[in-house]
Design a protein that fits this description.
The structure holds two protein chains of two kinds. Helix content of chain A is 55%, strand content 9%. By secondary structure, chain A is of the alpha/beta class. In chain A, the strands form two sheets. In chain A, strands 5-4-3-6-7-8 form a six-stranded mixed sheet, sandwiched between helices. In chain A, helix 4 runs antiparallel to helix 9. Chain A starts with 9 loop residues before the first helix and ends with a helix. Chain B contains 16 helices and nine strands. In chain B, the strands form three sheets. A five-stranded parallel sheet of chain B has the order 2-5-8-1-9, sandwiched between helices. Chain B has a two-stranded antiparallel sheet with strand order 3-4. In chain B, strands 6-7 form a two-stranded antiparallel ribbon. Chain B is 51% helix and 13% strand. Chains A and B meet through helix 2, helix 3 and helix 10 of A and helix 2, helix 5, helix 10, strand 9 and helix 15 of B.
């Protein structure tokens, strides 16, 4: 099954490295298509790869099209091209890398080895892999040899004398692995480790955070999510604006058509359409931020911030027992500072826990100008009213003066009405009460919000 | 044409544009590969200037298209000159009736006329807007599509044909292919994300705030009346300020404004009082100014 390696040119080997690097980026969640890879290959002949800055920028400019992915690219680049060969020139890295593997192993053996390496990587804890590569490779080889898994291919692998090994090594089956084979296996192990660590790890981390139950987010995870939410927010905005634009043209605008066509003697050469008003949602977001130590309220505020940056007409309010408008605060500060200053604000009286009734009353009293028949009201909170007056009258007033009222509840459905939660008091008056327990839920909700509007 | 990346940097410097190796690499590659560049980055880092200076350095004609919401093909590509068409039909009335004279029926007349209609939909009656201009230009040109993120996504889709094939299709005439492929530069302030299809056709360049050394060079070049010592202080301060969590970081153009202002005021050193009084040159939000004032002691030493 061995195919002749001499057919693989030096150039192809160099290319293989670039394909592999693109693969690493893809696994890290960077969107790369064949067009980008072709561009990269076209660009490389124009530059000298020995100059690191230029080489790096060439890869970045052809492969990475989304600026939010640049940090990921930088990370991958440093790891991939730096760590591999210490201080050797980049040129060496291309040519030496796949060489050894390809010379020694057939395609079949290679993929077999890779699967063994994957098993090896999965069967040990993360901390184990901090050891040196030589050490790890020795363990790997020991494990493969001692286990049955090796099978026939395994045996042939380890008993083979490398083509490079000096002619007359003795034929005993117990012989040491030739350094070349060892070196090649080590290279493969390192690469697999690297790929898993770099690409997949980044992606998995993101998915983990997006799916994590809000209540369980740790403070530093919330910080970590800021960038992520920003990126997702941007993507969401883009999606929404695409949908909006499709319904732009309305009926004929008689007045404008007549006036503009006067220059052609009143003959309507050019028809003008009335631009259908782009449906920009007007949102009022009310966010319960009680139990200020709880990470959940920080997260909720972060969501509110995201919403406000997504849509033009958003007014944001925060409440515990009193309601305060925070629209301007969010407009002027970056989220971190805004959040801190909200929690330091003396307008909130702590201690009594959230009072939905009072907050709704205050809203009707002070801010009912925010409500029009186009407004969608979002309430982010768990409806735990601490056994106080639910302020249902005000709530119904809010409902009557707005178009929709959605309640996004971070509690799981079976916990609504549990303890001091009075979700079911409000449910009949909401357009919908929904369980929103992680960021993906919220993103789905916003999507549906726009589908319903025609 | 630039000969190398080094040469790109030098040629642009002659146009008073200091650029990093990264910028030069992308520009050089784009020229070699005949691909458009999509330039992104915060406002005021010199995205538009880059286009202008490349055009000057290469001796290309600069054709600029400013994007905005509602920009359509008629404004960007071409428009039929209805008034002129109408006028010509009026003037040529006699000629027309002569041609149609010997046609017996109305149907024949229409048929006859339709053989002539090419005349009215020819390039004579076409008003070329920036994109068509760039494509039909006799000499090489640089098409600068500014703030593409402000345009609608339909317009973006329409640009695809231009960007990949350097050709446009006019239904009445056919496809017009570029004589000299224009060098296309698109800039975006990230108001919205561009579609994948568009990004795929471009090289991507992200211009961030420059390093201290680079920014110092820029200020020295543009505001030489500021002494070297003051410039160093300004740059250090600006870089400290950018580390704060601001709503809007001061960009290069704001650094330049500040340097000019301080030079006019006759400052020789930058001390706290002067800095506080002139913060509004570099910061555009009240809350940002407050924050910097609060931290002024750590930002400026004297």
């Amino acid at each position: 099954m061995m195919y002749d390696k001499s057919f693989i040119s030096e150039e192809d080997k160099a290319k293989a490295v670039f394909f592999e690097f693109a693969e690493v980026l893809k696994k890290a969640g960077v969107d790369i298509s064949i067009v980008e890879i072709m561009d990269m290959l076209h660009a490389l002949p124009f530059i000298s790869i020995a100059e690191k800055e230029i080489f790096k920028q060439t890869l970045a400019t052809t492969l990475v099209k989304d600026y939010t992915d640049i940090p990921i690219f930088n990370q991958c680049f440093e790891e991939y091209f730096q760590r591999k060969k210490g201080n050797d020139s980049l040129l060496d890295v291309y040519t030496s890398h796949t060489n050894a593997e390809d010379f020694i192993f057939s395609q079949e053996e290679k993929s077999f080895l890779e699967s063994l390496i994957d098993d090896f990587l999965e069967s040990h804890p993360q901390s184990f892999f901090k050891k040196s590569n030589e050490y790890l490779t020795k363990i790997l080889i020991d494990e493969i040899q001692s286990s049955e898994a090796g099978g026939a291919i395994g045996l042939s692998l380890f008993n083979r004398r490398s083509r490079f090994a000096s002619g007359g090594a003795d034929d005993s089956t117990e012989q040491e692995l030739s350094p070349q084979v060892f070196e090649a296996i080590m290279g493969m192990l390192r690469r697999r480790m690297f790929e898993r660590n770099m690409g997949k790890a980044i992606k998995q981390r993101e998915e983990y955070l997006l799916n994590k139950y809000i209540y369980q987010l740790k403070p530093d995870e919330i910080k970590e999510m800021r960038e992520l939410i920003k990126r997702f927010g941007q993507k969401m905005k883009n999606r929404i604006s695409l949908r909006k634009k499709r319904v732009k043209h309305g009926t004929i605008d008689i007045k404008r058509t007549l006036r503009r066509n006067l220059q052609y003697g009143g003959v309507p050469f050019k028809i003008f359409h009335r631009d259908r008003k782009v449906d920009r949602p007007q949102l009022v977001v009310m966010c319960d931020i009680s139990s200020s130590v709880n990470q959940y309220s920080r997260f909720m505020l972060l969501l509110t911030y995201t919403l406000q940056s997504l849509f033009a007409k958003v007014r944001s309010f925060a409440f515990i027992s009193n309601l305060v408008e925070i629209t301007d605060l969010f407009r002027e500060m970056d989220p971190e500072r805004a959040l801190n200053s909200i929690f330091n604000d003396t307008n909130f009286t702590y201690g009594w826990g959230s009072n939905y009734g009072n907050s709704f009353n205050q809203f009707i009293h002070n801010y009912s100008d925010a409500l029009t028949h186009k407004t969608t009201v979002l309430i982010l909170g768990d409806a735990r009213n601490n056994n106080q007056d639910p302020g249902l009258d005000s709530f119904i007033k809010i409902k009557e003066r707005s178009r929709n009222i959605y309640w996004l509840n971070p509690d799981r459905k079976h916990l609504w009405d549990w303890s001091d939660s009075i979700a079911s008091v409000y449910i009949p008056h909401c357009t919908e009460m929904r369980e929103v327990k992680n960021f993906l839920d919220l993103s789905n909700f916003i999507d549906t919000l726009f589908i319903q509007k025609k | 044409m630039f000969n190398s990346i080094e040469d790109t940097i030098q040629q642009l410097e002659k146009q008073r544009y200091i650029c990093s190796k990264e910028i030069a690499t992308t520009v050089y590659l784009a020229l070699k590969m005949q691909k458009p560049i999509l330039v992104e980055g915060p406002a005021g880092v010199g995205k538009t200037d880059l286009g202008k200076c490349i055009a000057q350095a290469l001796g290309y004609e600069l054709i600029r298209l400013q994007c905005y919401e509602g920009l359509d093909e008629a404004k960007a590509l071409y428009e039929w000159e209805y008034a002129k068409q109408l006028l010509y039909t009026q003037i040529l009335k006699d000629k027309l009736s002569k041609i149609l004279e010997d046609q017996a029926t109305l149907k024949d007349a229409v048929n006859k006329l339709s053989t002539e209609e090419d005349v009215f939909f020819s390039e004579k009656f076409l008003v070329a807007r920036p994109i068509l201009k760039a494509i039909t230009n006799k000499t090489p040109s640089l098409l600068l599509i500014d703030e593409i993120d402000k345009s609608d996504s339909e317009f973006e889709a329409f640009l695809l044909e231009v960007l990949s094939d350097f050709q446009v299709t006019i239904p009445e005439i056919g496809t017009i292919t570029a004589v000299n492929k224009p060098f296309v530069l698109l800039t975006s302030n990230n108001a919205r994300e561009m579609s994948d299809a568009l990004k795929r056709r471009c090289l991507h360049l992200y211009i961030d705030y420059p390093t201290k050394e680079l920014e110092e060079q820029i200020v020295k070049l543009k505001v030489p009346e500021c002494g070297n010592y003051l410039i160093k202080e300004i740059i250090n301060t600006i870089h400290e300020i950018r580390k704060l969590p601001l709503k809007k970081d001061p960009s290069i153009s704001e650094t330049l404004d500040w340097a000019k202002a301080l030079a006019l005021l006759g400052c020789e050193v930058l001390n706290r009082n002067i800095a506080i009084d002139t913060l509004n040159f570099i910061l555009k939000y009240e809350k940002d100014i407050e924050l910097v004032k609060k931290n002024i002691n750590t930002i400026i030493v004297h």
